[in-house]
Amino acid sequence: MQPMGAQRNLPQPGQLVRRPKVLLVDEDPRDRDRYREMLHDSGFDVSTSADFTEAARLLERESFDGIIVSQGGPDFKGRTVLEDSVARDRYRPVVVLSRYHDVGCYLEAMQLGAVDYLEKPLSAYEIVRALTTHLRSNNAAA
After folding, report:
1. CB atoms within 10 A of CB 51
2. What pTM was estimated for this model as a whole?
3. Which positions ≥6 away from 77 have C-beta within 8 Å?
4. Residue 17: pLDDT above 90?
């Protein structure tokens, strides 16, 4: 007979559970703080950046399981983070957040490799669902 935890793939006593590591890039400090708190409270290890160039440097130095990046206005400044992330790991999910729902930016983000494009403001459920759905599908494929 298997221990109860093994039946559900739960960690056994003494096992460490690794929190998925996420990079959150958003130039709006209120949104960035709010979404960081939501993700942290939902079990994620969250690094944040207010700057798209700084975020690209973080991608060079650190490993992340998922990326959440703000569109950065109608000119899609977040594109650089999306492109850098996909170039480094095409299987890492990137979710784009937008305050300016724009069909052209949506299509561009999806063509560049984003797994989701969500309109702000978001509830904790929406942001966590978008990320965990794609993290789960990547883990199942591995």
Report:
1. 13
2. 0.83
3. 27, 52, 71
4. no
Amino acid occupying residue 26:
D
CATH assignment at residue 62: 3.40.50.2300
> At 136, which helix (H) or strand (E)?
helix 124-141
Q: Domain containing 60: what range?
A: 19-141
In a domain, 71, yes or no: yes
Strands 45-49 and 66-70: unpaired
> Mind listing the pLDDT tens digit for each residue in 98-134?
987 789 999 999 999 999 999 999 999 999 999 889 8
Percent of the chain at pLDDT above 90?
Answer: 69
For residues 18 and 6, the answer to whether their CB atoms sit within 8 Å is no
Element (H, E) at 119: strand 116-119
